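Let's do one together. I've listed all components of the complex below, 704 residues spread over two lines.
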Amino acid sequence: MSRKTGDWRRRQYLKTTGAVSAAGITALAGCSDDGGSSEGITIAGTIPTSGSFSSLGQDLERGYELGVQRMNEELDQDVELVLQDDESDAQQLRENLQQITSNNDVDMIWGSFSSLLVTAGSAYAEQRDIPFLGIAFAYEEPHRNDDYEWTYSPFPKSRDMARSTVGLLELIPEDERPSRVGIWEPNSGWGNEQARYWEDRLTEEGYDIVLREQFELGSQDFSTLISQSQSAEVEVLLSNPTPPGGITAVNQMQDQNWVPDILKFVRGADPSAWWSALGEAGAYVTMCPGWVPGLTGNGNENLWQTYEEEYGLDEGQLIPVNVGGAYNLTQVALQTFQAADSMDAGDLQSSLREEEFNTVIGDFGFEDNGLPAEGELTAPTGQWWEGGQRLAYPESDHEYSVDFQYPSPPWDER
Amino acid sequence: MASSELVAQTLVNGLLLGGIYAVAALGLSLVFGIMDIVNLAHGHMLMVGGYVAIILFAATGITPLVGMLLAMVLLFVLGVVLQKVLLQHVVDEGLEQPIIVLFGLALVLQNVGRVLLGGDARSSDIGVPGSGLDLGMVYLSFPRTVTFVIAVLLIVGTWAYLQYTKTGQAIRATAQNRTAARYMGIDTERIYVITLGIGTALAGAAGSLLSMLYPIDPFVGWSYLLKAFAVVVLGGVGSILGTLVGGLVIGVSENLGALYLGGGYRNIVSFSIFLAVLLIKPEGLFGGSQ
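Okay, and this is what the predicted structure of the assembly comes out as:
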């Protein structure tokens, strides 16, 4: 069932209540601890609208909102999304989910941003046997080691990031292709996993890993890493810092007058705040955010249309990448509910395991542990260019894509 | 094995970083040493100073070096008001009450920042022409070098103020013995107002300088407070020279630690040195001196 937009938006943050109680009770705006409806679909979710990932919160929220709007149009039942601010904090996220699920009959949980927060949400969902979907979560090991049964991640994983990096480099003619690769590895589980994938895959392809150095997650000073990279003559620099670490690192590269030919910051270059913070200094940097303007099919056109209707787009303005990633998650949810034709958790789990999903990031199914089936996801690489994140790999002639811009020019030539 | 150029560059980077740490800690040290108050809102005042410079730069293109002066004035006023309205009533009530008041203020500043400015990290630019200096073995980043020089000037200026001005001497006298200072005719309440004003103004200056090097968001306050606190304790509470040396020691040890042991050990190295110094010399490297 569709809802009026104004009322629907307001109610994202509220609980419909009363379970059961009468329909009029839904007017209890502002209450977050009243009971949920047993008739419709209730989805719990958290987003970081404050804290270190707050620059991403609005993007996720918008993607979820557009998706729920679509679900309400396509499904026979009302879909209620109860979103709360997790403050970019795993403990807060757990408390939020505890509160939402204790007051509602929750059918599904949607994740937040980053491996740190998404794994916190998935751990909660696994304990309570609630289907969980999470994006901005490339970390693979929890899927394998934590016996996930209810967690599904429609998002490129570390191995896909490495594959996409190889693909991006292959866009460069072989005789011009740089070969000296440096990896800055955050001292986290995902940091180690991603660095290992990059090192293994690129070594396999004949690249020289001339530098692999750790740094503390959340570090503000990259001067030593920059000096080490310069000393090792790094041409391709790969890393996965959390925001706003990527912005800080580029600022300091500029200060130290060094820039690699190719720079890929997975997650670190995702936020739309990148351009407002760095301007032209942020150009040429690539990222792998799951969805990038320039992708087509599977609802991309609808995403652009509804986004523009709902939030507006200035001339030349593009949709932030995490809106697309979040919208892709909602498409998986929609198709899961459609296939299950039920709100039973077991039926939803079966659908997630068995169905082939078609979303704005591509066509894929899931392994039993919730990983997207290997090799099925596009894992697009975007590049910051003319103020927006544009599809660079795979190549496309879409107006929002960009021919991969290489190499990054020295700072004094920009 | 790291090349000599890399070691030299790392050392210089550490020194430049240490200067920034020192100026970030200067106001905290002053207030801690003289008023015996741990200003838990120091990091958040630094954040306010950073935003003043950033907003001024974004709106008018005025360099944060000028923005720094405005931030100092605004933060001085904030410090004066804070002392007169809140802290004056609790300053002699033990350690806990000022800490609770300042903790609350920190949360207020953080949330006001988030509501008014959003959660996105923002930064400024030095905004004056100039490029780094290539000395062959090492490259001196222009904004870092300028920031370092201004940081040292602020530290020297604060030291000279305390050493050679009448008010500065009154501040030192109050720090040594408040009761004796009163008997000598010093208006200690006024001295506290001035001290907190100077301390918060220095936080504002540090924030403006830091905004040229690191993004500022409403949540950075706690991390700067932690680092500044380490510098203050390492150098010696209330010691201006100690603040500079403490900052430099932490900056250099972090960078050399990252080079030789890996970036994951950065804080472990610097805080191990911090702990070692405290074990050997609990009052800090320059504890007791001004």
